[in-house]
Design goal:
- By secondary structure, the protein is α/β, with parallel strands linked by helices.
- It has 14 helices and 37 strands.
- The strands form 9 sheets. Strands 16-15-17-18-26-25-24-21 form an 8-stranded mixed β-sheet, sandwiched between helices.
Length: 708
């Protein structure tokens, strides 16, 4: 920066208002015109007198200032949005930024202020909004101009860009440096609508559109599309470019499904990242139908009803058998408000419509003929579910274990007196610690110390068993099964060998997780994916792939290694670490959008990652079509940073006087010449005594000239 300097100038400090000076000047002019018309002598001396009087009243002063020059301020906008990380754009931008800062350091009186512009919170790149915000604390007299390093894909409103093209920001040149070799093309695939959920057994419709940017589109041109769901064989379509298209997909199972829609790449396009889109659809069951049959009133009946009625996804049908068919208490039928048990309707016509059948302390009193019980067993083997909560009736002569239901039960009662009476606290078995139905139940005995008692309350009755063919998740302290699960054909069954779980709901001895346990058992029976005993799961959040493996098998001796396939086909191995009994997890970065596949021991999981900013990835070209008009209209220019060999070609930083045009291959910044006044001295050029003396002399000369 230059050293301070002294500048002198003429200033005026009028003794009268400006309008009054104008009036006096007009009167003087009129008097002179009258004298001129009469050809009066001494007219010039009169004019001189009037001029001296007006000059004195105008207050001319010589002002001398000590000035300190102020540096000009230029802005260097640096685009750090997601699209600038494609290819060599970031490297070219870094090179240009370094060279421009070095060049600015060689120009005294210039401050080049960097402004980093990232992704906007509402999507896209907002270069001009960031520029206007940066201009707020820069004095207009010091603003030298803007140099923007960007791919040119600005997402400010088109009206704002057009307005700034007519009135450049800060009134100074705007130079655009694009990290590419020239105008580019790009193909993008965007999802127009996609449901987050789908009903199992029905279909969902996905709508999408393919656009080609930066090229002339022949009429009727079509593009090949591939739709793949969870690694299945792809479905192929051919759709017109620029027109909405749709695909209908059936929802075949509950749980998450990852659907990838990919368009054939465009030759020479900027990037293929936005040629595909990923949609995650959660398959849900529509109104799960549950049949609850209570054999006799008991305290646990209310717990079952409250649990199933509280679930909005469950459509509950509940019957309580208050009087077996053989009971005769001489009450006339006309005095009863009960309805006849619709045996044939429930267990013959509608048996296939129930997803879960719950038999709560139900005994075979002849109410259900053997063919009807066989229908229940057949429904389970065909894909249904059966849950039995039993008490002493299960060990009696009317036990359902002596019916066709025995073929699908997880266990049978022990011979003789199988009813065990006495206080005990239920324990979660080692298998139960790993099974999602009972893993992590609050108050359970810890997995690492099986001899430590649980913190929940006691039960007082259990049924001894034999022929256990299911998985025992809970037991008595003596090792007798309490909760047993089984896969029977395509269906599932569960057996709770105590009718005392209602004590937990009453808070006995601190209570226990009664509602949570029953909810998990019921949803496991209805195939809730989150309660699958052996499953591999993968999700992506914040650019990180989360892998979780659940297994009921004992912990492996060696760490598990999963094979991860990225969207670009690159494979890598990741080691899973145990985080809880029966659960191992791993994490790794997932920077690429698309479908990530995880494989482990014959299981596969899929996770989908779409670009986080749909607006930013809608068009990935490097282009001057949006900001080029602003650059040229402001006195700046557009330059492409990539040379023929791919290396950066950075334009020269050029300083010119304000208003001068830019030159090709240069980034122009104006010289504004702003300064700060550090001191000033003012002296009157026409003191009052001098003005009076000169005025009197002029009047005397005019009088002398007129007297001749």
């Amino acid at each position: 920066m230059r050293e301070g300097f002294v500048a002198a100038g003429l200033r005026f400090a009028p003794l009268l208002p400006l309008w009054l000076l104008v009036v006096l000047a007009a009167l003087a002019g009129a008097a002179l015109l009258v004298g001129l018309a009469r050809r009066a002598r001494g007219l010039l001396w009169r004019a001189g007198c009037f001029a001296l009087l007006l000059a004195w009243l105008a207050g001319p002063m010589l002002v001398t200032e000590r000035r300190q020059p102020l540096p000009d301020i230029g802005l260097l906008l640096i685009d750090h949005s997601a699209s600038m990380r494609l290819g060599a754009r970031a490297a070219l931008a870094d090179t240009a930024e370094a060279q421009l800062h070095a060049a600015a350091a060689r120009h005294p009186g210039l401050i080049l202020r960097p402004v980093a512009v990232g992704d906007s919170p509402d999507g896209g790149t907002r270069l001009l909004a960031a520029l206007e915000a940066a201009l707020a604390d820069i004095p207009p007299a010091r603003f030298a101009g803007t140099i923007a390093i960007s791919d040119g894909m600005d997402h400010d409103a088109a009206a704002r860009i057009a307005a700034l093209a007519r009135h450049p920001p800060g009134g100074a040149p705007f130079s655009l440096l694009i990290p590419a070799a020239g105008e580019e093309t790009d193909r993008s695939l965007s999802i127009l609508s996609a449901p987050a959920y789908g009903i199992v057994g029905k279909s969902v419709t996905l709508r999408y559109v393919v656009h080609d940017w930066g090229r002339a589109l022949p009429a009727g041109e079509r593009v090949a599309i591939r739709i793949r769901r969870d690694g299945e064989l792809p479905v192929r379509q051919s759709v017109p470019i620029g027109a909405p298209a749709e695909i209908t997909l059936p929802i075949t199972r509950a749980g998450r499904a990852v659907v990838e829609i990919a368009a054939a790449p465009l030759a020479g396009e900027a990037s293929t990242l936005n040629d595909r889109a990923v949609v995650t659809i959660e398959g849900v069951r529509d109104r799960l139908r549950v049949l609850l049959v209570s054999g006799r009133p008991n305290p646990g009946e209310r717990a079952w009803r409250r649990l199933l009625k509280s679930d909005p996804a469950v459509d509950l049908v509940h019957f309580t058998i208050l009087r077996p068919p053989g009971t005769d208490d001489r009450t006339p039928l006309s005095a009863m408000s009960l309805i006849a048990f619709p045996v044939q309707d429930l267990f013959v016509r509608r048996i296939g419509s129930f997803d879960l059948i719950v038999l709560d302390r139900f005994a075979d009193h002849g109410l259900l003929p053997m063919p009807y019980l066989a229908n229940i067993a057949a429904r389970v083997r065909a894909g249904g579910a059966l849950l039995m909560s039993v008490g002493p009736e299960f060990a009696g002569p009317d036990s359902l274990a002596a019916t066709p239901l025995a073929s699908v039960l997880p266990a049978l009662p022990a011979p003789g007196d199988a009813v065990r009476i006495g206080a005990f606290r239920p324990l979660v078995t080692a298998l139960g610690q790993r099974h999602p139905v009972t893993a992590g139940l609050p108050g359970a005995n810890p997995a690492h110390a099986q001899d430590v008692p649980p913190r929940w309350g006691s039960w007082y009755r259990a049924i001894a068993t034999q022929d256990v063919v299911g998985k025992v998740l809970m037991r008595t302290p003596e090792g007798a099964p309490l909760l047993v699960l089984r896969h029977a054909g395509k269906g599932r069954s569960a057996l709770l060998l105590s009718d005392q779980i209602w004590l937990w709901a009453r808070g006995h001895q601190g209570g226990g997780p009664q509602a949570e346990l029953l909810r998990r058992v019921a949803h496991w029976l209805m195939r809730e994916p989150a309660l699958a005993g052996n499953a591999l799961d993968a999700t992506i959040a914040d650019g990180v792939l989360h892998i979780a493996r659940r297994s009921t098998a004992p912990a492996p001796a060696q760490p598990l290694r999963a094979r991860v396939t990225a969207p670009d086909g690159h494979e890598s191995a990741v080691v899973l670490q145990p985080t809880a009994p029966g659960r191992q997890e791993a994490r790794l970065p997932a920077p690429l959008p698309g479908v990530w596949q995880v494989a482990l021991d014959g299981q596969h999981a899929y996770a989908g990652e779409s670009p986080g900013d749909a607006l930013e990835f809608a068009d990935l070209r490097a282009t001057a079509t949006r900001l080029g008009g602003l650059a040229r209209g402001s006195g700046g220019a557009v330059d492409w940073l990539a040379g023929p060999d791919g290396h950066a070609v950075v334009p020269r930083l050029r300083r010119v006087v304000a208003g001068a045009p830019s030159a090709p291959g240069t980034a122009t910044l104006w010289r504004r010449g702003a300064y700060r006044v550090e001191g000033a001295r003012a002296e009157a050029l026409l003191p009052a005594w001098l003005a009076l003396l000169l005025g009197l002399a002029a009047l005397a000369m005019a009088w002398w000239r007129e007297g001749r």
